[in-house]
Amino acid sequence: MTLYEDITGLVRNVTDGAIHSANQKGELAASSVPDYLIEEPKDKNFGDFSVNAAMLMAKQAKRAPRDIADILVSNMDYADTYIKEVSVAGPGFINFKLDPAYVTQILSTIEAEKDQFGQTNFGGGKKVNVEFVSANPTGPMHMGNARGGALGDCLANILRLAGFDVTKEFYVNDAGNQIEKLAVSLAARYKQALLGEDAVEFPEDGYHGDDVRKHAENFAKEHGDRFLNVPEEELKAALIDATLYKNIDAMKDGLSDYGIHYDVWFHESKLHENGDILKTVEELTERGYTYEQEGAIWFKATEFGLEKDDVLVRANGFVTYFAANIAYHKNKLASRGFDTAIDIWGADHHGHVARLKAAMQALGIEPDRLEIILMQLVRLVRDGEAVRMSKRTGKAITLGDLLEEIGVDAARFFFNMRQANSHFEFDLELAVSQSSDNPVFYVQYAHARICGIINMLANKGVSVKNCDGLSLTRLTDPKEIDLMKELARFPEEIKLAAVARDPSKITKYTMELATAFHGFYSACKVDCEDTSLAEARLKLVSATGQVIQNALAVLGISAPRHM
Q1: pLDDT tens digits along 125-159
Q2: What per-residue confidence (pLDDT) applies to 11?
Q3: Band of pLDDT at residue 395, cut at 50, 70 and 90
Q4: Is residue 226 situated within a structural domain?
Q5: If you compute the radius of gyration of the chain from its CA atoms, what whole number of angstroms results?
Q6: pLDDT in tens, 446-492
Q7: CB count, 10 Å around CB of 13?
């Protein structure tokens, strides 16, 4: 249990006790405890926590909310607790002021838990599969992949810290139409490399990227005209064999450079090879959710309220990507036994969400176990103008181009500054600026400043001591209290981010923590003549550095000691 949960639990126990006491005395005609909120007032003059129970009880008790609040306060027993004062404000809010000493406990907790601080058992070990990026292995990764990579990796880190058993997964689309299109494109480029571009027509809907041309030319250099006159299917198979896994290895390298390492690389081709797709179609048929029309097998999506049905197996016997996707998610949720599967998709795939959930329901799998996060596009800007081309290559900006220009830390931080469903303008100039306007620089500078303070005092013979030997009750300045409250929030913020599937809560938290630290450092001199106070403040500085480091680690961002 976190300090936040402990203290809000105390407030709730005291409030519940007052409600029961008032009812037993006959002072209130309200027999049940309402589902009231415990909140932190925006105006700190009102106290540390506020409860709205009186307003919710007014109708049942047939009393004015403020009268009810007065009755509840008179029935509260908070002796020998951290509650210092209780008062009524406004229309009937009950405000709690706490003894500042309660929050100093967080320093001992951070000291004990170190880099594990923030970890909770909220998830209870439930198995969660987080699948993200899953780019087609037909070319370089783009900005959508860059945002999805940062979002998915950080979300997985958050869920792990919140106590879930997380598997990070990449779904390799190494079968189906896109691979056929790649094969056709490579075959055309191979023939052009040997016979000339005018001699061979390139397919209009083929992959026109330079990477395809380069792969084909390298194949031609290695094999010459050996494959020029073989059957087309043999040529395509040889080209895919020579190209596909080079592309996959390139993606692995690029994602590794981005700080992303997957637990599982799941190949779509496996589902074709072991017959899982056709078995899934058969199961849907047995359950009565398919029909045959003009030689094709259709899924009865309309039975689940959708506008139209979807093809599973075409008349030529080829299974659709939809059928493969159903089999894949059945594999996750049924065969491998994940409690929840979280997919991160581009917003352009929103039309597929309902039908995939419908297919899960048709297979007897609770559709809510499949969660799909739709991610909006990113607009890169420089000097207020949209940027689409790399300065270096003059072509569309890839993940590699972005990392080369701004670095991993800035990319991962900026991509997680907004919720996934928000459109986002990524300011490239801001991302590399060394100023407080740059949020990642602002947070990293706070950590570097902390390291500098600790080193400076160490050179003066003042080192960070264990809490047991310190007078932490000396930390009573409002800025000290505010900073310790921010530190105490971290485990709760991890939990809230896990529930909301939203890493932006953690980037926001790091900025708020950095602001609280800078405010404390400006108001409270650490290197002061009062030795016991200086040591207590140094401990607070050290604890802040640890939490900033922990929060940045969740985001996959470095915590530099020097800037």
Answers
A1: 999 999 999 988 887 888 889 999 999 999 999 99
A2: 96
A3: low
A4: no
A5: 30
A6: 999 999 999 999 999 889 999 998 999 999 999 999 999 999 999 99
A7: 13
Instruction: Return the beta strands (E) in 287-410 as ranges.
Output: 290-293, 296-299, 310-313, 340-346, 370-375, 378-382, 385-386
- What whole-number distance in Å separates Cα of residue 176 and Cα of residue 462? 65
What region does 62 belong to: left with phi over 0, alpha with psi -120 to 50, or beta?
Answer: left
Single-letter code of the amino acid located at 341: A
Are residues 453 and 520 located together in one domain of the fold?
A: yes
Contact 540, 475 (CB under 8 A): yes
Residue 391 has pLDDT above 80, yes or no: no
Question: 404: closest CA among 417, 391, 388, 386?
Answer: 391
pTM greater than the 0.85 cutoff: yes
CATH number, residue 539: 1.10.730.10
Are residues 532 and 478 part of one domain? yes
Q: Measured between alpha carbons, how far is 89 from 525 in angstroms, rounded to an integer?
A: 35
Range in 32-36, 98-102, 316-320 the model is least confident about: 32-36
Q: Could you identify the residue written with the tokens 């105006």?
A: 43
Is the pLDDT at 392 greater than 60? The verdict is no
Tokens 């581009």 belong to residue: 346
Sheet holding 83-89, edge to edge: 38-39, 49-51, 93-98, 83-89
Number of domains in the chain: 4
Do residues 188 and 196 make contact, with C-beta atoms less than 8 angstroms apart? Answer: no
Domain final residue, candidates 61, 76, 98: 98
Domain that holds residue 326: 274-375
443 shares its domain with 549: yes
Q: Are residue 370 and residue 300 in the same domain, yes or no? A: yes
Handedness of CA 375, 377, 382, 383 (dihedral sign): negative
